[in-house]
Amino acid sequence: MTDFYQNGIVTTLHQLSRRPLAELEAELISFARMRPMALVLPSLYSELEGPALNKIVEQLAQVPYLNEVVVGLDRADGDQYRHAIRFFSRLPQRTRVLWHDGPRLQEFAAELAAEELAPREPGKGRNVWYCLGYILGSGRAESVALHDCDIVTYDREMLARLIYPVANPHFNYQFCKGYYARVADGKLNGRVSRLLVTPLLRALKKVLGNLDYLEYLDSYRYPLAGEFSFRREVINDIRIPSDWGLEIGVLSEMKRNFSTNRLCQVDIADNYDHKHQDLSLGDDQDGLSKMSIDIIKSIFRKLATQGVVLTPETFRTIKATYYRVGLDFIESYRNDAMMNGLQLDVHKEEQAVEMFAENILKAGNVYFDNSMETPFIPSWNRVSAAFPTLLKRFYAAVGADMKEYGT
Questions:
Q1: pLDDT by residue (tens digit) across 164-219?
Q2: Three-class SS of residue 389?
Q3: Which terms in the Gene Ontology molecular function aspect does this entry carry (predicted)?
Q4: Ramachandran quadrant class, 209 (left: phi over 0; alpha: psi -120 to 50; beta: rest)
Q5: Among candidates 117, 130, 32, which has minimal Cα distance to 72?
Q6: Global model pTM greater than 0.90
């Protein structure tokens, strides 16, 4: 149970009481009359074979207020897509599975690529972007939630708390970010948030000063959480990265498009765990190493759009400052873990900080070497301007896939 303290410039909605789930869901049912709700599930096919998604579907089958579930399916062939339709058919809500690797949706990808409007690389960002396009084309939801498909501790209360702030017509929030404690199996998890993002933001403040953007990002208790919710109108003008910078990219876009009093974060779980990425110390194209580079690049690019001049000397200074701050954080986490009877491997924590420090320079080099790169997927507003009928055709193509392979 958290306290009521408000940190930073984004409203925090705490879990101050054990409010019965039935009460939350009863309110959401009433909200749904004015603001129909949808859920987006970006998924790899392999997650259908894992332990988490089956439980998630079982929990979602009991949710009474959702109008639509949109599943983005990656890395699936025809037989696997057919299996995915059967897998999600247990859901009583209207459910659509987007087969991103199928011929119909690949035709749309080629059409967009011809105008340089398609996502440039596969990944969660691309998956989410197409799902958001489908939400626009469907027009069945005013409030939308999104969460990952690998949450092994999933409970439908997570979804209720996540979507409540943007579904409640008495609130003015356009966007809500979920947060939680990353503690499982007697250990502190969440290394990239704990050991990279927060120390890096503190280091950037030391080097660059207290920029409003840095203060904003530092207000989020778990900036890399894959769970967030939003009003449908948010979708039209959002420009997101297609790589591991998705979560930071989404937060950056919310800051660009809305006043901070329209944004919030909410405590959605006491216990949260999902699959863990390898640290990948020797491979910066995989695991947490690649993830960290993508995240750092996302932050650097956003700072550049704010008018911050970044040089090789700046990156070296940021690296040195980050390293010192990161090591100090390890001591804080060690003491916190010890007081709570949790395990923390200081050696592995320092290995992570050392790798992240090196990756600050690698991300800086990528930033300079690819100065002409367009890092964001175009907004759906731009796509619709270039192809006025595309959303309707895209919506119809998904329906055609479901009809052909669902029989």
A1: 999 999 999 999 999 998 888 888 888 999 999 999 999 999 999 989 999 999 99
A2: coil
A3: transferase activity
A4: left
A5: 130
A6: yes
